[in-house]
Amino acid sequence: MNPFLDAAVEMAREAAVILLEEFAKPPEIRYKGEVDIVTQADKRSEALLVARLREKFPRHGIVAEEGGGSGAATSEFVWHVDPLDGTTNFAHGYPCFAVSLGLLHDGEPIAGVVFNPVHNELFSAARGEGAFLNGKPIRVSSAERLSESLLSTGFPVQQRSENRNIYHYWQFTLNSHGVRRDGAAALDLCYVACGRFDGFWEFGLKSWDTAAGMLLVSEAGGRVSDFAGQPFHPGGKEILATNGLIHDEMRLATLQIAERATRNPL
C-alpha cells in the first residue's frame, strides 16, 4: 500500500462528487483573462482538495491552479493540483474533464491520480509500482511508426495567434492516423499510458497539468521528454509523451517542423 497514492485516490473521488454535482447545473463562469475561464466547480473542488491535503500532509507544499496552495518553495514534498482539468469542456457541457493530483519529491513525480468521473475511470501510478486504470495494470501501445499512430495535442487559451502549435498540428495530422484535441491534457497523458493514444505533445502546460500524467506514462512503459529529448519536468515549456517506440521519430519531426515554421511563418 502506498499512503500517498491511497490518499490521492480518496481525495480525487471526493472532488469528483463536487464536479458531477456542478456539471448537472447551469455553469457559473468567471473570466481570468480574455478567454481563460474558471467555474464554481473549479473553486469548490480546489477548496476541498487543498483542505484535505493540509489535514493529511501538513508539512507538504501545494501548488493549485486557482491559487489555493502554499509552502511549495520550502517543502521537499509538493502536491500539484488541478481541481478541474478541462474547464472549458466542463463549462460547455462537453463530458471530457478530470481531477488531477500529482505529488513531487524534490521535483520528481512519485505519485499521481487522474479521475474522470463521467466515465468512472481512475488512473493511478506510484514510482516504481506501475500504472493502473481502475486497479488493473495498463501499458502503452505497440505502434512502431508515426504513420500508424493516433496522436493528441492541445492549444493554449491565451496568446493563440502567437502559438506555433498550428504548424505541428498540420504536419502531424498529415503524417499519422490523425490528431485529437480533447482539451484536457491530464487525460491525454493517461490515454497515452493506456494505449488509446500513441503520442502526445503540447506547449506551455502548467505543472498541475502534467505532474500526475507524466508519471502514468512512464510507469506504463512510455517515454516523456522535451522536444530536445531531455528529461521533462512539470512546468516545462514543451512536452512530448509517447509509447517510446515512436518517440525519436516524433522528436525529429518537431525539430523539422520548427525549422520550416521559422522559414515560412504564418
Detailed description of the structure:
- The chain folds into two domains: 3-137, Fructose-1,6-Bisphosphatase, Chain A, domain 1, CATH 3.30.540; 146-263, D-Maltodextrin-Binding Protein, domain 2.
- The chain is globular and about 50 Å long.
- It has 266 residues and is an alpha+beta fold.
- Helix 1 runs antiparallel to helix 2 (40-56), helix 4 (165-175) crosses helix 7 and helix 5 (185-193) packs parallel to helix 6 (207-219).
- The chain has seven helices and 14 strands.
- The model has no long low-confidence stretch (mean pLDDT 91).
How would the blueprint of this fold be written?
Elements: H1 3-23, E1 29-31, E2 37-39, H2 40-56, E3 61-64, E4 77-85, H3 87-91, E5 98-105, E6 108-116, E7 121-126, E8 131-133, E9 136-137, E10 150-152, H4 165-175, E11 178-180, H5 185-193, E12 199-203, H6 207-219, E13 223-225, E14 238-242, H7 247-263
Parallel strand pairs: 3-4, 10-11, 10-12
Antiparallel strand pairs: 1-2, 4-5, 5-6, 6-7, 7-8, 8-9, 12-14, 13-14
Helix pairs in contact: 1-2, 4-7, 5-6
